[in-house]
């Protein structure tokens, strides 16, 4: 029997440095770094980290917007077997503190714009032995280039192994606290291969990433392009005019956008003046595309759309270019409201509440088995055994298959609100609102929103004799959690409907407020 051949993300970096040495790995504004330079910088960072006392599988935190140094730190962890722990810069101080306390990084790379926030929680985050400022100067931190200069070109004495943990990517949950998904070298490399296959990318491709790299979506798409030696074009944030300029001027061939962002791009007044001749793929994710928007996009750009569905925990399915048929039969038009079919190396089944398989057109929980699946949650055994059982990931999403094997999202069992491509967990928002002493009860639901897909709506019951305005409720919530999670609207009610079990009846709430 032939021995198993082990491959890691380090192999991808080394292969690219040899095969596509002068090809840009990252482009950002007027800066670039080739695949050979990326490996060289990664090895120096790994060596510098070892000299700072880090051992294999120690955690390295990063709090930053998209930047070339971000890509270098990611590569250093991928090559060396250190564990990358990303931090969502959009979170509030208490949320960031929780992630740093939970992941326990020994080094934290950060941008100077977050120095004040970090300084406020430094006494709590005792695991961090060294702070590295990626830009600017902070008195209590080591400058990034000064840190790299301490490293040796041959890298650390340790290199990534297939069984190593590669990253902790924190995702929200119904408990209200972010959970660290444990993603291994093996699984992340297979996930990158899946993304490469789905986008059909090669060394001449350039993907524009406007989503933040702390998200698994942007990170995985970038890894997918690097899997075959392509280039990642980074933007700090989504700006539709800048995106179109990059497509026109920077040779972008692939875009990765939420459906709401696609609409904002198509609404740009200069859309018809842009040269789209090199663009061959638009990946949209987080939700199905509204049919009128998809038809409009395909009329302008052609059959270049693909839809990918998954979570931080597991990559699941995709609707291919060829399956986007807005002018097809009624059966084919229905496909456009689906999230496609399972990826190669992936099994999906639909289970009822008793664990029995559901027949086609019957909804149940989406349960996934994949070669690119998280190993569990960091420091959270209870959540791990609830989500990962018998080799399957219980997604908490409710869906169904049709007779063609297309998967449809019906509802979200975990009450996730998807607004502008961001997952917002209702329980987390409810906890923040209920921390106000004047509020007796609260339930959070998603409301249809033309721009963002969904917006957060809070249904609030005040305590006896208490009174707050909508503005005051929203301001209180924003002080507790990230601004993008705050309610956009507040409904004051005398009571909130309950199920016989005493739980809030959100189905009734949704029917009542957006029938």
Overview of the molecule:
This protein has three domains: 219 residues, 3-Layer(aba) Sandwich (Rossmann fold); 162 residues, Rossmann fold (3-Layer(aba) Sandwich), CATH 3.40.50; 97 residues, 2-Layer Sandwich (GMP Synthetase, Chain A, domain 3). It is α/β, with parallel strands linked by helices and 515 residues long. β19 and β20 form a beta hairpin. A nine-stranded mixed β-sheet has the order 2-1-11-10-12-13-14-15-16, with helices on both faces. The chain has a seven-stranded mixed β-sheet with strand order 7-6-5-3-4-8-9, sandwiched between helices. The mean pLDDT is 91. The radius of gyration is 23 Å and the shape is globular.
**Cα distance, first to last residue?**
61 Å
Strand order, main sheet: write it out. 2-1-11-10-12-13-14-15-16
- Bin the helical content: 25-40%
What does the oligomeric state look like here?
single chain
Structural class: alpha/beta
Average pLDDT rating: 91
How would you summarize this macromolecular structure in one to three sentences?
The chain is α/β, with parallel strands linked by helices and 515 residues long. The chain starts with 8 loop residues before the first helix and ends with a helix. It is built from 16 helices and 26 strands.
Task: Outline the secondary-structure elements.
Layout: H1 9-19, E1 24-28, E2 31-34, H2 35-51, E3 59-63, H3 68-80, E4 83-86, H4 93-103, E5 107-110, H5 115-121, E6 130-133, E7 142-143, H6 144-149, E8 165-171, E9 179-184, H7 185-199, E10 206-209, H8 216-226, E11 231-234, H9 240-249, E12 254-257, H10 259-266, E13 281-285, H11 291-301, E14 305-310, E15 315-319, H12 330-335, E16 341-342, E17 346-351, E18 364-370, H13 381-387, E19 388-389, E20 392-401, E21 407-412, E22 416-419, E23 422-425, H14 426-434, E24 439-449, E25 453-462, H15 470-480, E26 489-492, H16 506-513
